[in-house]
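Lecture notes, continued. The same structure-token format from the folding unit now serves as the input rather than the output. Read the line below as a description of shape only.
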């Protein structure tokens, strides 16, 4: 199913060749995919040279839907996708992560219910994916010690959502989802990929050359916001001083005092406005601090030897100066071998990288053998009745 979805093999003969399996094995594997409606015939591919014309296969868009919620601090982007990777409906709902998990998850569930109705979807979703701005514990389906998210530590997000939505739920860090979205949209599998998110906070998502997210032992891989900046002693909400986030994030540039709460987001918005208007002082401040972000990317480049570094987030969207500064520091400071094939670029999917990363996770989970077995089992009682 993954071979067909990625278009790596779209005919039976292709699948036999690419997978190295016997033709009868491939026939046996395809049978339940037709039974569940996951795969369908897509017409005849004309013969090439002396070959015979072959029947092409495709993932049936109608196999079901995947729900994705990409949650930021103040808003969640929601979308319903079909299996043809088309958006059936989408919305943005205001949330407030500081109110704790239950009110936020209620808002997300209500938003999904509206969208599913708008899209005219009758069946339960195949999978749902939620992205949250904190380190994620995959085993317990929860976020772990997320800063600025009181009440969330260890809360069973996956358990609560799967009960409400009636499907398998996956949880992922928001920057990891962006990294995955940007990696999956590349025309060929290139990696490793680093997604750098510079906004209210600073973080990164890492995808290996095999297309796998790098979580680390405790879900904290890529959490670069608390790397020490040489020469800085700015206090950070994490308790340390001199963190990258306390020196060069939007909160830092906008001069946010962390005791101010609600007023701080307005300050960040105001700073973004003057930055977009190319206010000389704002641009000068950014140019002064951005090289510190570049220095941390240099370290990542030497550790991971990425093929691509994507510079995203609200700061990157507001001005090209950030991308320019990161490029300049990385090319100056990295050893030539590490940058020989390195591309440093903005996000191809803009602000939607996270939604498409969620879609990739949700689709791939629905294509796992266990999920397909569940689907077959769900269909069986109906067949027995009809006999
Ligand atoms: Zn810190």
């Amino acid at each position: 199913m993954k071979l067909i979805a990625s278009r790596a093999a779209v005919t039976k003969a292709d699948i036999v060749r690419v997978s190295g399996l016997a033709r009868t094995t491939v026939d046996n594997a395809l049978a339940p995919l037709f039974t569940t409606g996951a795969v369908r015939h897509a017409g005849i591919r004309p013969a090439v040279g002396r070959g015979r014309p072959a029947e092409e296969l495709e993932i049936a868009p109608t196999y079901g839907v995947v729900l994705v919620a990409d949650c930021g601090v103040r808003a969640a982007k929601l979308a319903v996708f079909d299996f043809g990777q088309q958006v059936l409906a989408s919305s943005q709902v205001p949330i407030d992560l500081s109110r704790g998990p239950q009110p936020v998850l209620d808002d997300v569930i209500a938003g999904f219910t509206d969208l599913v109705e708008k899209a005219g979807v009758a069946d339960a979703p195949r999978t749902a994916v939620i992205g949250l701005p904190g380190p994620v514990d995959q085993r317990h389906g929860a976020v772990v010690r997320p800063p600025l998210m009181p009440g969330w530590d260890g809360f069973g997000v996956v358990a609560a959502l799967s009960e409400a939505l009636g499907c398998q739920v996956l949880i992922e860090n928001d920057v990891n989802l962006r990294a995955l979205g940007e990696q999956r949209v590349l025309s060929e599998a290139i990696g490793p990929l680093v997604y750098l998110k510079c906004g209210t906070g600073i973080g990164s998502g890492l995808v290996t050359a095999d297309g796998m997210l790098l979580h680390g032992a405790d879900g904290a891989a890529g959490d670069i916001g608390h790397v020490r900046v040489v020469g800085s002693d700015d206090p950070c909400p994490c308790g340390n001083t001199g963190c990258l986030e306390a020196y060069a994030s939007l909160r830092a540039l906008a001069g946010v005092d962390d005791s101010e709460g609600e007023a701080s987001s307005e300050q960040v918005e105001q700073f973004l406005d003057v930055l977009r208007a190319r206010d000389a002082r704002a641009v000068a401040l950014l140019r002064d601090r951005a090289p510190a972000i570049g220095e941390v990317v240099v370290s990542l480049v030497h550790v991971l030897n990425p093929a691509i570094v994507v510079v995203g987030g609200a700061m990157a969207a507001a001005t090209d100066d950030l991308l320019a500064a990161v490029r300049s520091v990385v090319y100056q400071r990295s050893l030539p071998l590490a940058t020989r094939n390195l591309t440093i670029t903005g996000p191809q999917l803009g602000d939607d990288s996270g939604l498409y990363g969620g879609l990739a996770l949700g689709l791939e989970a629905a294509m796992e053998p266990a999920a397909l077995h569940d689907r077959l089992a769900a269909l069986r009682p109906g067949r027995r009745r009809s006999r």
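Point for the exam: The chain has three domains: 2-59, 64-178+352-383, 186-347.
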